[in-house]
């Protein structure tokens, strides 16, 4: 059964160009039950949102800026999120913002057993990223399927990028080391580990990990590009799905 998600979007921190990629990405995880976006819609700067909201059936929530320098939008999102949580109508939340103010909200939702997906730009502070089960960079979503697969992961290793909170974009060598450690922890006597299990653990340790950051669409080609892992697959009991295993090369 598909998971039900509530999508809460901070219009003060997100561009309308990301809306379709956001909804498309979340549709891979489940059904979107709530689609709400928060902002002061009396501001001329948000006028360009109207057609986007109509096209995607997103409910705009009006929140006036009562005091200069205070973000009332954040408070409105947090209150709505807790109301939705207590309604019991969803299995997870998607919080779309690059603002660290939602760190405690993400942690609180996870404490209640909800799956939390965060989405924001690369300037998003580390605390908010770490508070989510999974975090997706909006810049990567905007690229869509236009990015070409890299010839080797080393060629697309990301340079260190700093932002508020001193967040570092993950590097290939960081992921490679993590994969090696996970394989050592979960492999059988011959050193083989389920790629699915490795991927799940990797995402728990690095919520912002996304193979699209390195120019790949799938995890298996990314793993193969590193050149230090053996990969083999066998048909599952259903026959139409392969079970993939990996181990370190001797």
Please provide a written account of the structure.
The chain is of the alpha/beta class and 250 residues long. It has 9 helices and 9 strands. It has helices at 19-27, 50-55, 72-87, 103-111, 126-131, 138-143, 172-186, 195-205, 219-225, and strands at residues 3-10, 30-39, 59-62, 92-96, 115-120, 134-137, 193-194, 229-235, 242-248. The strands form 2 sheets. Strands 3-2-1-4-5-6 form a 6-stranded parallel β-sheet, with helices on both faces. Helix 5 (126-131) links the parallel strand 5 and strand 6 (134-137). Helix 7 crosses helix 8 (195-205). Mean pLDDT is 84; it is low at 145-168.
List keywords for this structure.
250 residues; alpha/beta; six-stranded parallel β-sheet; three-stranded antiparallel β-sheet; 21% strand; elongated
Overall mean confidence score, pLDDT:
84
Give the beta-strand count. Answer: 9
Percentage beta strand: 15-25%
Radius of gyration: 20 Å
Structural class computed from helices and strand pairing: alpha/beta
Number of helices: 9
Sheet having the most strands: 6 strands, parallel
**Residue share in helix:** 25-40%
Order of helices and strands: EHEHEHEHEHEHHEHHEE
List the uncertain runs. 145-168
- The side-by-side strand order for the widest beta sheet comes to 3-2-1-4-5-6
* Overall 3D shape: elongated
Rounded to the nearest angstrom, the distance between the terminal CA atoms is: 41 Å
Write the layout of secondary structure elements.
Blueprint: E1 3-10, H1 19-27, E2 30-39, H2 50-55, E3 59-62, H3 72-87, E4 92-96, H4 103-111, E5 115-120, H5 126-131, E6 134-137, H6 138-143, H7 172-186, E7 193-194, H8 195-205, H9 219-225, E8 229-235, E9 242-248
Parallel strand pairs: 1-2, 1-4, 2-3, 4-5, 5-6
Antiparallel strand pairs: 7-9, 8-9
């Amino acid at each position: 059964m598909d998971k039900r998600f509530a999508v809460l979007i901070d219009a003060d921190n997100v561009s309308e160009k990301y809306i379709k990629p956001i909804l498309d990405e979340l549709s891979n995880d489940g059904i979107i039950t709530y689609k709400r976006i928060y902002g002061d819609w009396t501001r001329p700067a948000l006028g360009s949102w109207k057609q986007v909201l109509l096209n995607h059936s997103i409910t705009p929530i009006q929140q006036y800026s009562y005091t200069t320098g205070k973000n009332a939008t954040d408070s409105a999102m947090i209150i709505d999120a807790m109301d939705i949580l207590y309604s019991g109508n969803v299995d997870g939340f998607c919080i779309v913002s690059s603002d660290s103010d939602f760190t405690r909200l993400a942690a609180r939702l996870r404490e209640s057993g909800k799956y939390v997906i965060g989405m924001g730009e690369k300037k998003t502070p580390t605390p908010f990223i770490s508070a989510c089960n999974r975090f997706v960079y909006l810049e990567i979503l905007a690229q869509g399927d236009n990015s070409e697969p890299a010839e080797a992961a080393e060629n697309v290793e990301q340079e260190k990028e700093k932002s508020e909170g001193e967040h570092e974009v993950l590097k290939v060598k960081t992921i490679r080391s993590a994969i090696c450690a996970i394989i050592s922890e979960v492999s059988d006597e011959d050193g083989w580990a389920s790629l699915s299990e490795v991927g799940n653990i990797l995402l728990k340790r690095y919520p912002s990990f996304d193979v699209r950051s390195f120019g790949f669409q799938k995890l298996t080609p990314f793993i193969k590009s590193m050149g230090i892992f053996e990969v083999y697959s066998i048909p599952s009991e259903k026959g139409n799905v392969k079970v993939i295993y990996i181990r370190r090369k001797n």
